[in-house]
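User: Modeling request: complex.
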Amino acid sequence: MFHNLFNFKNPTGAIGLNKRNLTLIYPNNERQFYHLADDKIKTKETLHLHGIACAKTYSVITQIREIKHKWNDCKHYQALAIKPANGCGGDGIKIIKKDKSGQWKNGNTLFSEAMIFQHITAIISGMFSMGSTDSCLIEECIIPHPFFSEIYGDGVPDFRIITLKGKPLMGMLRMPTSKSDGKANLHQKGVGIGINMEQGTLTQVYDGKKYLHHHPDNPNIIVGKKIPFWEKMYQLAIDTANVFPLDFMGIDIVLDMHKGPQIMEVNVRPGLGIQLVNRCGLESVVNKHYPAYFQQIKHTISL
Amino acid sequence: MKKRINFKNTVILFTLISLVSLVNKGVQVGKYYDSFYTDTMFDISYQFFFKTTEDNTSIKTFIPKNNDRQRISAYKYRGTIDMQQKAFANNIKAIWTTNTPNIHESLEYQFTFEGKEKIYSIPETFITYDSVTAENYLLETKNIQSDHPRITVIIDSLKKYATTDRQLMRGIYDIALAIPEAPIITLSDALTVLDQKYASCNGKTRLLIALSRNAGIPARMKGGLILEETSKRTSHSWAEVFINGNWIPFDALNDHFGYIPANYMELYEGDQALITHTKGMTLNYNYTINEKVNIPFLRLSASQFSDISPISLWELVDNKTISTHALTLLLMLPLGGLLVAFLRNVVGLQTFGVFLPVLIAFSLVETGYFTGILLFIFLILLVGLISRPFQRLGLLHTPKLVVSLTLMVLIMIFGSYIGLRYNMLWLTSLTLFPTIILTVSAERFSTLIVEDGFEKATGTLFQTLIAVTVCYTMLSSQYMSFVIILFPEILFVIIVIALLLGRYIGLRWTELLRFKPLLFSKNSAHVS
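Assistant: Request completed. Predicted assembly structure:
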């Protein structure tokens, strides 16, 4: 049919939302399996089942009356992450740690047990999932690898790797900045750092407007910087892609100081900003790995 | 993988269905194309009931003529007495005469009226006419005492302030307009109106004409009926002033300055009575007027149309089974949805929901565009602002929504109250339908503020307003609604376009901006 209403140059094959949906998501991900990625608890069940490295699940709370006794099983840990199973944009995630006197703290502020209960109740009532009730996930707290503090010290950075039919296509490192309030999302003023997939090195920083050779809060050049455990991380992405019945995914990986790469979550509708971060369109990368991919797709869905 | 329905065949099938049906109907309907483009259509019936006198009895009344803004058709006469038509000056009179004494008669004269409104622009300077070319349109008559000193005094004082002829005309008009309205049955001439300080349409018109003629501007009286869905006995009169070669209407009772509404039926010129009859006879009369649904560009009635097309929606409208408004709303919804789909998938606008912009546009049709848009923005911001403290209370989602909705309703009730109290009609223009739509939009907006932050939510609001404006432009077009009532097959075309749109894989226009560094790589941002 009609592919472009205008003819313009698209040398690297940048893919828009329409093309992503029609040629990558719909033919590769069946709707009945979306919940495996959308619901963090189901994601973790799948990961645990196949022994794929991810933060250990301490507890899953689905009902308010369970809070008290499930919390009793968790309170002996030194650090915890409390998350809504269906939250979005990192809302409702609280990282709490015990201080020397055994008091729970969120950052530098005291987080009493009553406040913890209140937060869990809020998650279960659906405060972070827009209306519908939700479940609360309590899991192991990730301690970011010291590699990150060489670039920027605060918050939890993560890697995003996009896979198609089990092959990693493109990756980026998302880092918080002094303006992003601890969040690593590009549209929340975090930055994206492009990755050379063959060599496992960083290429350039993209802050949403311009390209830089360094993190905006740190003048040290990051170009060519080697990512620790890259091969392991690459393999982890492949393994993860293979255990989910979803053929096009955005896999989020964190790098723990002690345990190395860990799966954080998976996405069925990965964002397209990664193309900007890597200065490369997805189409050309797909063509590199699967030369006949788009021809075949066009044929099957008769575009 | 599930078996796919062949896409091309589906598209071809729907295209064929719609094309065959549309072309077939279009060719036949095309024969009835009408370039008159009427705004309104009425069926009018003159009804006379009377008892004849001992001698000859006659009744005379004016009947309408065609001109550039009114068209009369489908005459029908029922009665035992012959009806004669005679031209008197520029008017046509219907005359019924009988010499049968003391009988009861009833007669009915029916016709269809199609009318257009007409707006005239009044030039600043008027050509002056001498008494020969102006015929008797500058002359004093018994009831229009244009040469009377009192009239001259008024014109002299007006001339002191008026720098152009248009201003003078405005001054004359304003004097007639300012006189309070009263239903006066007895004949009131121009001077009486000045004395009484109140007047009927006739009185006001006579005063206006007297003043114009005194100022040297030819003027005449015009009589007719204001058509509305009713049965009535009252006729109407207004003035026509001869300005630079055109007779321009001025109605100082209903405040139409150089404008004639579509539902004014012109019957006669001059200071005349609409009905004249033999003295001593008893006469009862009535004008029964029915508004008809008309298709402005077709000279075809609903029943004729159903002969062409077996399934006709127009008949539903004509029989008042369903209101035009409701039917248009229903049929336009897919069209609006398609527009929004285009704006979202091809242009790349982000809007609140898919059908919400269409529904908001529908609300605007009720409130008026600018009032509606302003109210919309104001209410959404206000509710967003007021509900902010409630957001901070950490309430659960649904109860929090109820608070927002209640606030919205309270603000609207308050607005309507103020509007009624201080006679600001636009404040009371919010009916149930727009209220619900506004509330839903406000809710989406505040949800978006929570999810994406104020800046992004405002951006989406702005883009929604763009989509609303596009939809409004289409929905408010009268022609569009008639076309779709005549050709509901267009819905098949919508399916075809939506199918094609559903397979559009090009970049959205907004993505051209977003991916600029990738698309125009030669001059892409340099790495610093």
